[in-house]
Amino acid sequence: MTAPALNASRVLRDPAAPAWAADVARWARDKLGSPVPALGRPGTLCPYMPKALREERVELLECPLPGICAADLATHLRRAARRFAEEAGRLEPAEALLSCRIVVYTALAVPDRVLTEVRRRVKPHLLAQGLTTGEFFPENDDRSVRNATVPIARSPWPALVLRHSTPHDRIFLADQPELYRLFREAGPGIPAAA
Q: Which residues contact residue 127 at a Cβ distance below 8 angstroms, ignoring those fewer than 6 apart?
């Protein structure tokens, strides 16, 4: 049985929160939700994060599996995505746009290879449902599409972030033809005007 998700905004106010949750909540606020002038555009690294935290739309879900089998982790992520989609499906589009679930892997020994494989296995399935995911871990060297000197996916714990896809995702998928095709066919999970 999976433990319930924790609300990141509440974790930020809870001195007794688990260390992994406190670290990831602070990262969401201080890194994803802060301006990065080197990006060459105004605003925060994640334009939605400050409001998502204010409106308590960011959830943290621990995955304590050791990561020996990418298939097991992919199954766990699919289940987390299914629950996320069911819950977000009851929201108004503007609320759903702000909602995300950060699945935090607290027992992975080699997060880069394992998370890349899990994302590779699950992302096509998610895009077909109007969802998407991105991978984050301490040594992640993914760079901004706007400025290749800016690393954008480093986090204190290995994590995969689940959220609805938006028209903006075409920028991230442009150099991945098969994923881009799935994204175009399914359409974004949330329209730009939400």
A: 165, 173, 179, 182, 183, 186
CB 130 within 8 A of CB 189: yes
Q: How far apart, in whole angstroms, are the C-alpha atoms of residue 112 and residue 28?
A: 20
pLDDT digits (tens, 9 = 90+) for 101-143: 999 999 987 767 888 889 999 999 999 999 999 999 999 988 8
Torsion of CA 175, 169, 183, 118, to 10 degrees: 80
Stated pTM of the model: 0.92
Q: Please state, in angstroms and rounded to a whole number, the distance separating the CA atoms of residues 100 and 70.
A: 22
Q: Of 124, 59, 119, 122, which Cα lies nearest the Cα of 91?
A: 59
Using alpha carbons, select from 194, 117, 121, 123 the residue that is nearest to residue 161.
123
Q: Which amino acid is at 172?
A: F
Q: How many helices (H) and strands (E) does the chain have?
A: 8, 5
Closest CA to 44 of 152, 174, 167, 136: 152
